[in-house]
Amino acid sequence: MTSPRKIAIIGGGITGLAAAYELTLKAKKNNTELEIELFEKDANLGGKIITKKEDPYLIEGGPDCFIIEKPWALQLIKELGLEDELLNTSSQASGTFVYDNQALHRLPEGVMMMVPTKPLPFLKSKLISWPGKIRMACDILVPKRKESGDETLASFVKRRLGKEALDKMAEPLIGGIHAGNPENMSLLSTFPRFLEMEQDGGSLIIGMFKRQKKMVEMMKNRPAPSGPKKTFFISMNDGLGRLVNKLEEVIGNNSFRTEREISQIRPAGEKGWLIEDKTGKTTSADAVIITTETYSAANMLRLELPRLADLLDEIPYVSSATVSLAFPRKDIPHPLDAYGFIVPKIANRRIMAVTWSSIKWDHRAPEEMVLLRAFVGGAHRQELVDQGDQEMLTMVREELNTIMNISSPPQKSWIYRWPQGMPQYIMGHLEHLAAIDKITASHKGLYLAGAGYRGIGIPDCINQGRQAAVKAWECLNIQ
Ligand SMILES: Cc1cc2nc3c(=O)[nH]c(=O)nc-3n(C[C@H](O)[C@H](O)[C@H](O)COP(=O)(O)OP(=O)(O)OC[C@H]3O[C@@H](n4cnc5c(N)ncnc54)[C@H](O)[C@@H]3O)c2cc1C
Q: With a 6 A CB cut-off, is 12 part of the ligand 1 pocket?
């Protein structure tokens, strides 16, 4: 009797789970026995997705939502039968504030990403100075760049919209998604659409108008959408951990090898790949999908594939932390009429942003309480993540006091640190990926996927995991 074919997955974050799910589906559909072994160094699965239920609160330690514009998360949730558990952003508030000049200013209505699309609210806003507004409007006149190819986020925004737009909107809003530094962020790897807009429309403002018009046309022409309307950002009633739990259930416990840190992976000829954990225990697999952080993948591959390991090691990461705090509503003087605020680097403060979590999402805290979540660290202030809990809490409280005038202590707080947790797509990232692909393509049965490569958001990670699984399945050549 021949033993079933085996695929190993390293890393049990959303990318690894999506890969395991896709393989489970494939095996079932083809009525084939396939062994799936997913190795995760931690005791729990989910990676950056951590939902903690501590009655009456629901805390997200990492991501708290995903965008619906990229379809892969929504599609997976539908396949899993969880559509009824999706949670829109609450209608009790909308928008966001920007902290500037020692005050919170509402981001003008109609600003999409960083581009103003509604003239009146933009002109009325005190966030951008008059010279800054005029400079932003000049986007319509600035000729498009002659050279094609990549550019940093900072260079692009300064060129099209001016320095004030970079400092007060693009850096905290767009750079903030990656906790990154716009001065070295590759626009082509992160937001290629901006470059396309410039090339197609000659200007960002016109490009954004065109995009809006196209979307309106699309909505008009498409058949009535099924199910209730969804907001741009979406979560789940019980938090994103629900998606992880459901995937665990569908994939089945037999596949999971938790608390197994993989230290080495090497080609093993006919046997495919040999996988060794920290304790020296080995197993072999026909194919292996590595979904860990790229520096961790580098450590596993260094002995046999040193050039690949070097390339993987060169992808930089930054550290960040989230600090959630529960306050009695009466202790917060602010009307909390938005989803939170962002803090530009030029404000020189010690937090990057604060989400007013229980305002943005229902089911997060009881009526009389408010849950806030502060972001610490990122490319500009990584050292702050190394502080002890008490020190970090004191710092966040001081910042909240300065910015929101909250002087009372929180009733509860939760800290999650993400050391080297956020990959940075810096200039040259795409060329880097091409070099990595060239090496992996010459090693049958080796696949790399996850946040370090082609998109850090949950939808992109799911897509990468599933695509890697399809390739691994095809490589087994199962008839
Ligand atoms: C604070 C924060 C907020 C975020 N907010 C959002 C958001 O709101 N929306 C959004 O879409 N995205 C958000 N992101 C990004 C998103 O959460 C991540 O990019 C995504 O979850 C990464 O998934 P992954 O599976 O690729 O990697 P990970 O979740 O990092 O999983 C990798 C796994 O590999 C394991 N591992 C590592 N080394 C080994 C080894 N040697 N052996 C075995 N296992 C190993 C790790 O323990 C980990 O579980 C956020 C990220 C952070 C840090």
A: yes
Q: Could you tell me the pTM of the whole model?
A: 0.96
Q: What CATH class is the domain 5-48+240-315+426-476?
A: alpha beta
Going by CA atoms, what residue is nearest to atom 37 of ligand 1?
A: 292
Q: How many angstroms separate the CA atoms of 429 and 439, rounded?
A: 16
For the chain, give every domain's residue range: 5-48+240-315+426-476, 107-221, 317-423
Ligand 1 geometric centre to CA of 164 (Å): 33
Residue 180, token pair as written in the block: 């990154």
20-51: per-residue pLDDT in tens?
Answer: 999 999 999 999 999 999 999 999 999 999 99
The answer to whether 424 and 317 are in contact (CB under 8 A) is: yes
Domain 317-423, CATH: 3.90.660.20
Cis before 116? omega within 30: no
Homologous superfamily (CATH) for 107-221: protoporphyrinogen ix oxidase, domain 3 (1.10.3110.10)
Which burial class, exposed, middle or buried, applies to 29 when counting CB atoms under 10 A from its CB (0-12, 13-18, 19+)?
exposed
Please indicate whether residue 9, judged by its CB atom, sits closer than 6 Å to ligand 1: no
Atom 49 of ligand 1 has which residue's CA nearest to it? 47
Q: Residues 6 or more apart from 159 whose CB is under 8 A from it? A: 142, 145
Nearest one of 478, 18, 23, 438 to 243, comparing CA atoms: 18
Cβ-in-10-Å burial (0-12, 13-18, 19+) of 476 comes to middle
pLDDT digits (tens, 9 = 90+) for 423-459: 999 999 999 999 999 999 999 999 999 999 999 999 9
What is the rounded distance in angstroms from the CA atom of residue 344 to the CA atom of residue 419?
22
Q: How many CB atoms lie within 10 A of CB 162?
A: 21
How far away, in angstroms, is 302 Cα from ligand 1 center? 22
Q: Are 47 and 12 in contact (CB under 8 A)?
A: yes
> How far is residue 73's CA from residue 466's CA, in Å, rounded to a whole number?
11
Q: For ligand 1, what atom is nearest to the CA of residue 49?
A: 21
